[in-house]
Amino acid sequence: MANHYTDDFKIQIWAAADKLRGNMDASEYKHVVLGLIFLKYISDKFEDRYRELLAEGEGFEEDKDEYTMEGIFYVPEKARWDFLQDNALSPEIGRLVDDAMIAIEAENKKLKGVLPKNYARPELEKRRLGEVINLFSNLKMHGQDEQDMLGRVYEYCLTMFAEQEGRRGGEFFTPACIVQTLVEVLKPYKGRVYDPACGSGGMFVQSAKFIQAHSGDLKNISVYGQESNPTTWKMCMMNLAIRGIEVDLGQFNADTFTNDQHKQLKADFVLANPPFNMDWPVERVKDDPRWAYGTPPGANANYAWMQHMIHHLAPNGKLGLVLANGSLASQAGGEGKIRQTILEADLVECIVAMPSQLFYTTQIPVCLWFISRNKKRKGQTLFIDARNMGELVTRKLRELSEDDIRKIAETVEAWQNDEGYEDSAGFCKVADIDEIKKNDYILTPGRYVGLEEEEEDAEAFEDKMKRLTGELGELFNEGDTLQEEVKKQLKSIGWNIEKQ
């Protein structure tokens, strides 16, 4: 299916889904919308296999094993989309959708306790629910590009919910351009991929996209994650199921620090965007072996997250981590000493300062830490200042372009492989541990890369002033014209503007 069609359709879906909101806020009705997308997807997959079995004429079309062996969820008769569509205009449609979710969970152990069952609630207008079901019915969520198509619809809705929820949206959503940057630098082609604060699974989705874009095989990666928020944990399970990504999210949602669901895991790649600057229960795990570089302060979990991830790295493992910029220079609660110890262990491979306004949820500037158990360039750290990259896509939101992401990734790769890398004033600089020590182990890239060299201005002062005053005069004239037009329009509806 053509991408432009999917782009148009995902906007239609959002417009229809937005009608469902009623008295619910975004944090509640996102589960209604995302649950319907998931239900439509698994029903379409089931129907395809059902018709194949029917055509074979062996009578196995209701044999659950014939579906599960193909990696397809078994959908009971009254949970199938055709049944729901036939009853879309019924006042009982909310209860029927809830019953469908319950029946699917009963037949598929992987989905037990995962699907939303809140469609019968009074706040959800049943007529509009039926309209959305009918709209979804016009999109067949399968075919050659089924996972990409539905995945992009799902991802679009996640983006829109994050925008509506504001700060709370950050609990489940990391902007795609940040995730893409982590993935393009780390290149997780194969091995164990881990995210201890996985939200809705964006790190895993982008890793899968990267592998597919480079003609790799998803069977070559194993995915592990953990999430403390129960509704976000469920959302992640659905998101990854739609993508066909097998994942181990632990037995249930749980706090990563106090109930590590993957204690024995040694990952080849760790990618994460944990909550910034949060309190954490240090007293409950104070003597844990994870704090090999120093016990982090209870008032800020930044270095607890970092050390948890380092602890879970394999001998050649690599880590990409999003943190607030304060992590680069903080001395509070012994953080400076922890940072020094990690640097002296030669683990920090690269630091990237990111532009502001990348998140819906916070204006706090962020950075990317790239850590490696076995660095290619021993004793060195690459600093990249990307603060001037990206473009505003709304008044409040900035995004990195594909070219921006490629430039960062290619810079790291050129340096790692000693293939034509050169320091670039204002953008990138390599520093050894002695230089970092002279800067008190502070890792703010601006300290190292310096200022970009300005191009020499060859225009004579007299010529420049003549040109600039001429341009200013044109702007004044344009302003006078617009002012007169505004007065004219106001006068036409009976209002005059008098000079004060």
Keywords:
500 residues, globular, nine-stranded mixed beta sheet, Ferritin, 3 domains, 16 helices, disordered N terminus
Description:
- This protein is α/β, with parallel strands linked by helices and 500 residues long.
- The protein has 3 domains: 3-165, Ferritin (Up-down Bundle); 172-449, 3-Layer(aba) Sandwich (Rossmann fold), CATH 3.40.50.150; 459-500, no CATH class.
- The protein is 44% helix and 12% strand.
- The chain is built from 16 helices and 11 strands.
- It has a 9-stranded mixed β-sheet, sandwiched between helices. The chain has a two-stranded antiparallel ribbon with strand order 9-10.
- The longest helix is centred in the C-terminal third of the chain and has 32 residues, at 461-492.
Quick gist of this model?
The chain is an alpha/beta fold and 500 residues long.
Strand content: 5-15%
- Work out the radius of gyration: 27 Å
Number of strands: 11
- What's the overall geometry? globular
Give the number of helices.
Answer: 16
Tell me what the CATH architecture of the largest domain is. 3-Layer(aba) Sandwich
Class computed from helices, strands and strand pairing: alpha/beta
Please give the CATH class of the largest domain: Alpha Beta
Tell me the helix content.
40-55%
The CATH topology label of the largest domain is: Rossmann fold
Please list the strands of the largest sheet in the order they lie side by side: 3-2-1-4-5-7-6-8-11
List the helices and strands in order: HHHHHHHHEHEHEEHEHEEEEEHEHHH
Kindly, what is the distance between the CA atoms of the first and last residues, rounded to a whole number of angstroms? Answer: 62 Å
- Show unreliable segments: 1-5, 166-172
Domains, number? 3
Q: Could you tell me the mean pLDDT?
A: 85
The biggest beta sheet, please? 9 strands, mixed
**CATH superfamily membership of the largest domain:** Vaccinia Virus protein VP39
